[in-house]
Amino acid sequence: MTYICFVESDILSVPHMEPLAAGSDAEAHDEATEVLLQHHSGIAAHVFVGDRLVCTVRPDQ
What is the pLDDT of residue 61? Predict the structure, then answer.
């Protein structure tokens, strides 16, 4: 299944959605961290695979 990253923003009401190339939960966490750092207004990145929440990453972590 494809990991999907939703980036919450402090300036946009609709989260940015991006598929990840990750093949594992750990890779998805690392990739979500990189994606979040690319969004200067990002306050959190939530990674899902199917209906399962894999992780939530915040810029201060």
Answer: 73
pTM confidence score: 0.92
Domain ranges, residue 21? 3-57
Tokens representing 16 are: 């940015």
Per the DSSP assignment, residues forming a β-bridge with 56 are 46
**How many domains does the chain contain in total?**
1
Q: Which residues pair with 42 in a beta bridge?
A: 9
Question: How crowded is the C-beta side of 39, counted as CA atoms within 13 Å?
Answer: 25
Are 42 and 32 contacting, i.e. CB atoms less than 8 angstroms apart? no
Contact 52, 28 (CB under 8 A): no
